[in-house]
Write a structure and sequence with these properties.
about 400 residues, six-stranded antiparallel beta barrel, disordered C terminus, Pnp Oxidase, Chain A, six-stranded antiparallel barrel, Thrombin, subunit H
């Protein structure tokens, strides 16, 4: 080889060495940046390593984005969750605790969004269809709904349930309105009824806009609609709830929505606030048991059913993670459609040396039919008045 060839060969080797070294330094710098972001978010070194590998294998241009981007974090959680679920590792304590931390971080990002964190101030921003509770001095409280939101006023349905006292005149009345804005908070405001249109079909009230509503209760969790059958059983205290599924007994109900710290449901008859309940339902074919207390109850006298809002908690961490996966839209059913190359990553980095054996698929449990019409929700035994 000539001297020129030797020089060229050394130059090529030097360039390769520089590229490799620069690449390693870049990777180290990238991991250090990722590590710092992960520590700030409260994750352990083992968890940060797993998240970094998952981020790389899912082709994140900026792996650190999963600590502030909801979309990136969702991709990461989906990969980890599906890996655990497919391999039968989601119920191992270490994995359940890791998922708990991921979901808690995901909830924090969701609830820190401006629309949730700061809410609204003006009634001009309320949506048509928003449910209202209208209170008037000396007249009681009534249910209503926004039917129109114009530049000059709110048009609300004529207050009902219960029927207003005979002779009550709404025009010119000062009213206090309470509402719960979905995925936000509870609001109250005082306003004046400008006009009433009792001869209109359906009759409405025109209520003056206000530019400052009181925001009374910020959401502590994220909920999602859940329209499946369920069962409720009265208990002496939430700690008395049996965490094992039974699929029998209690009163039949229909779920309305669910979150990690409660639920809403419809049950036939009248039920009062303050009652402690065991709620049993299913998500993705898996049983979900909630120990809770009725914090509000809206009784429909005409159709004889009650909408209950339950404050409580799921009875174990694995089930709580399943509820949160459902709430945030992580569909586990897709995990069985095709192999996922992240499976080995998840198994090797974040599970015990001997993975738990896969459990046999659960036999499907035939659900007792429940009518879609809330007024026809039948009871297993007796009447819900006994729950009051």
């Amino acid at each position: 080889m000539t001297a020129a060839g030797v020089i060229i060969a050394f130059a090529i080797l030097g360039a390769v060495f520089v590229l490799v070294t620069v690449g390693q330094l870049h990777d180290e710098a990238s991991f250090l940046q990722f590590y710092a972001a992960g520590k700030d978010a409260g994750f352990t070194l083992r968890q940060i390593r797993l998240l970094h590998r998952v981020a790389r294998e899912t082709n994140f241009a900026n792996p650190s984005s999963l600590f502030w981007s909801k979309r990136s974090l969702d991709r990461c959680i989906t990969a980890v969750y599906r890996g655990f679920y497919r391999d039968g590792l989601e119920d191992e304590p270490r994995n359940a605790a890791f998922l708990d931390q991921l979901f808690s971080y995901r909830k924090m990002i969701e609830l820190n969004q401006p629309r949730v964190r700061f809410g609204i101030q003006s009634t001009r921003n309320l949506d048509v269809g928003q449910s209202l509770k209208i209170m008037v001095d000396g007249g009681g409280s009534f249910r209503s709904r926004i039917v129109e939101n114009t530049r000059t006023h709110l048009a609300v349905s004529y207050p009902s349930s219960p029927a207003p006292p005979r002779g009550l005149t709404w025009r010119g009345k000062m009213i206090r309105v309470v509402l719960y804005r979905r995925d936000d908070a509870a609001y109250t405001f005082a306003s004046r009824v400008n006009s009433d249109y009792l001869r209109r079909k359906p009759p409405i009230l025109q209520v003056a806009h206000v530019e400052l509503m009181e925001r009374e209760q910020k959401r502590d969790s994220v909920r999602a609609p859940l329209t499946v059958p369920g069962r409720i059983t009265p208990v002496q205290a939430p700690e008395d709830v049996d965490p094992l599924p039974t699929d029998t007994g209690g009163f039949r109900c229909r779920m309305v929505d669910i979150s990690e710290d409660g639920a809403a449901l419809i049950v036939g008859g009248r039920v009062k606030a303050g009652v402690h309940l065991r709620i049993e339902t299913r998500i993705d074919g898996h049983p979900v048991i909630i120990a809770g207390t009725v914090c509000s109850a809206a009784y429909n006298e005409k159709k004889h059913f009650t909408v209950l809002h339950i404050a409580g908690e799921v009875t174990d961490l694995v089930t709580k993670n399943r509820v949160r996966a459902y709430v945030f839209g992580f569909d586990r059913a897709q995990t069985q459609q095709r192999p996922d190359r992240l499976s080995a990553t998840v198994r090797c980095e974040h599970s015990s040396a001997e993975p738990a054996p896969k459990q046999a698929p659960e036999e499907s449990v035939a659900e007792e039919p429940v009518s879609e019409d809330p007024s026809r929700v039948a009871m297993s035994r007796g009447d819900a008045e006994t729950v009051a």
